[in-house]
Design brief:
The protein is about 40% helix and about 20% strand. The chain has about 270 residues and is of the alpha/beta class. The radius of gyration is 19 Å and the shape is elongated. The relative contact order is 0.15.
């Protein structure tokens, strides 16, 4: 659980792939910037030999040393990746779970269905890290008046430093063929202004800047336009786009970007 809007413990789930190396690099940077500690987890198949475990431990220790984290020891568990990752995230009381982009050629790789399950059940927000570990200077949060979207925005804010900008976006959805809905847009703007003010009062002063805008139109088109205009390094989303979500399905917006992330993706439920 996020304490006083600070990330204090980061769990990185690693599968010995280059994508997971990017995730560990991002985690190491965030740990330096926030003062958080890092735990590194690797899940072995129950059928793997002891020699496989020793080899994995050696490779993970090398990764830790390469990221100036030599004081940490990797956690190695046997079993199903999803169950072990969720168990460790809960047991270690991690504030943030970081994984790399899923890939098809790794037997232990975090395929889309694995990411979905983790996202739906993880006690901590999940950061899908896919870009080099430059400091986050531009972040975007999609807000839809849901608790999970607000929570995702608050976590994104906790990862930003002095001079960085977080831009909150709300989409007033309507069929573009119908033309602008001025009355509906005015009401949405009033509600959105109040939401931003409520959230702003809960954000600590980190030196980051908060801006926001409201788009009107079809959601996917508005999101694409905002991403094109803002070029964020980090996109924060709630794990559903509207209303309640089935326990078996992600919201379409989160799922869309999980499959094709335009940048690092932070998702909270």
């Amino acid at each position: 659980m996020l304490q006083q809007n600070r990330v204090q413990h980061i769990l990185v789930a690693h599968d010995l792939s280059p994508d997971a190396d990017l995730a560990l690099q991002r985690a190491a940077r965030l740990a330096r910037e926030t003062g958080a500690r890092i735990s590194l987890l690797y899940v072995l198949d129950e059928r793997d030999a002891e020699s496989d475990e020793q080899q994995a431990r050696t490779l993970l220790q090398q990764r830790l040393q390469q990221n100036a984290l030599s004081g940490s020891e990797p956690w190695i568990r046997r079993g199903q990746p999803v169950e072990e990752i969720l168990t460790q995230a809960a047991g270690l009381e991690a504030d943030l779970l970081i994984l790399g982009r899923h890939h098809k050629r790794s037997g232990q790789g975090f395929a889309g269905t694995t990411l979905e399950r983790i996202m739906l059940e993880s006690p901590a927000p999940m950061l899908l890290a896919i870009t080099p570990d430059a400091p986050y200077q531009r972040a975007m949060a999609a807000l839809d008046f849901s608790r999970c979207a607000t929570r995702a925005m608050q976590y994104a804010w906790a990862l930003l430093g002095d001079g960085a900008e977080l831009h909150a976006l709300h989409v007033h959805e309507m069929a573009e063929v119908h033309g602008p809905d001025h009355e509906g847009l005015a009401l949405q703007q009033e509600l959105f202004d109040q939401l931003i003010e409520d959230i702003r009062q809960q954000l600590p002063d980190t030196g980051a800047l908060l801006s926001y805008s409201l788009y009107q139109g079809e959601r996917s088109n508005c999101m694409e336009a905002a991403l094109r205009d803002l070029q964020p390094q980090l996109l924060a989303l709630g794990s559903h786009s509207r209303g309640e979500m089935s326990s078996a399905l992600l919201g379409s917006l989160a799922r869309q970007f999980l499959d094709n992330p335009p940048c690092d993706l932070l998702i909270a439920r």
